[in-house]
What we know:
Blueprint (H helix, E strand, L loop, with lengths): L6 H14 L11 H24 L11 E6 L4 E6 L3 E2 L8 E6 L4 E8 L5 H11 L6 E6 L2 E9 L2 E9 L5 E9 L3 H13 L2 E2 L1
Antiparallel strand pairs: 1-2, 2-10, 3-4, 4-5, 5-9, 6-7, 7-8, 8-9
Amino acid sequence: MRSPFPISAALTAALFLSSCGKQEAVGDVPSGEELAKQADAASKAIRDEEAAANADGVAPVIDSAEMTSYANALRGFSIMVPKDWAADENASDDNGQVFNDAESKATLTAGWIENREDADLTAAVKALEDAGEGMTGDYVNENEYRASGLIEEGSKTAQRILRKPDGTMIKAAITYPADSAAALDPLAKQILDSLTLQ
């Protein structure tokens, strides 16, 4: 016997009935005024964060366009260096590179160290901690160590050591005249922050 309703009409009726019980929670949707307040608060927070970063010297000292990347594919790391810092080929090898800035008298050394059973890492950390009362250093985590301070009369250093997954390590160190610290401390941090394992 043939149904008095066509199948398409039955389907339409079923869909209509199933949707009748659903309601959207209107109270949970913020009003346009509330959304505008939230957007203003988020925008203010971003501006405050940027202003604090600039006041603390966290903002980049040198634009990335003024930096060049030194990458060591053999040892698996890279670091950003100011374009006008010259590579010292006599002090460099396959394990790393030395850069000098004639104007500020700063020197950057970035290179690979073998680190058998963490002996070299332990020795490097001990040497930094024993370098003088002006040195401060600490492990950021189990694979990263940072230190900075006065190493000898008239000189300051900032260093970062990263342990690679194979146990070897990459060390970057910037040494510069202590009387230039106000200008060079933020730049040293910017350079060391750019040290990346590949």
